């Protein structure tokens, strides 16, 4: 007889000195009454998790396109995994994207556009041209258009920020790897120029504007900048902490397939990030810690998400771009997607619906067994998110930090 699976309801205590925000934040998602029969509740909760997964996962009214308008970059970051061999997006690829969106728009509720690279702002004209098309088409068909950009921030000048804001782009991720000294050792301009000062000035301009937007400041953590982070967090807090539009995301540097992988001073301790998050919370910095169901599911696991490369290849993931398993098709100039079903299947079907361990895991509602499908495909391992085992700590952080 097999062992009965354990309830995925996590027991948490109010460690926030009685602050009502703690339970108010978690109520209805993670917290149940002390008198609740958790074993009985588990079966209903497990079924709910399955239904949430299916409803969010298998739908045809959403389309998510992660677009690489160029695969070149004005930076040469030491941990970067890209080879910069492809430049600007080909005209026929741009035409294919327009026609794909035009075909799909009548049946869509939401169109999600993510700008990636290389550095997308080095092909600013491509970004502008396609964005204007998306805005017109979404308005014509009453489609919700959601836009975001991952940018190094160097070319996000005041003029460009205002122009993109006018086109509805309101969500950015910009990386600062600590203090000016630490950042400029890692995020080096092509040819060797320093980058921190220009990025910081661009962010300060955004802060001084009255526009509505969100900027996630990402910090990549390794052994070299770890000890300098407390001082940098204090600087972030004094400049951006009071502003609800800015939030902090910490990420451990990884060996992602770049030329410098062997020399990277990576860290494995997730608690090191937890300590920094707590320091940032106490300093008044808003944290990028979404703990809602599905929040840790990788975009690459979604059947309606595609990475469109500059030469028209379709990938699922923005890492390991040249690996065969990650190249699942091609977009044609007429807007057709030629997809390889054998390569596509492991990305979208091998999560918690197929993995019996994931089905009864405590944090299944967060990641659905798909925190990183590439780990499962490449290594044959279950891709547990880094916060596994620290869910209570992160829940407390989210509940007790400044509201976002």
Automatic annotation (TrEMBL):
InterPro entries: 4Fe4S-binding_SPASM_dom (IPR023885), Aldolase_TIM (IPR013785), Elp3/MiaA/NifB-like_rSAM (IPR006638), rSAM (IPR007197), rSAM_sf (IPR058240). One of its GO terms (molecular function) is metal ion binding. Keywords: 4Fe-4S, Iron, Iron-sulfur, Metal-binding, S-adenosyl-L-methionine. Residues 59-286 form the Radical SAM core domain. PROSITE patterns: RADICAL_SAM. Its cofactor is [4Fe-4S] cluster. This is Radical SAM domain protein.
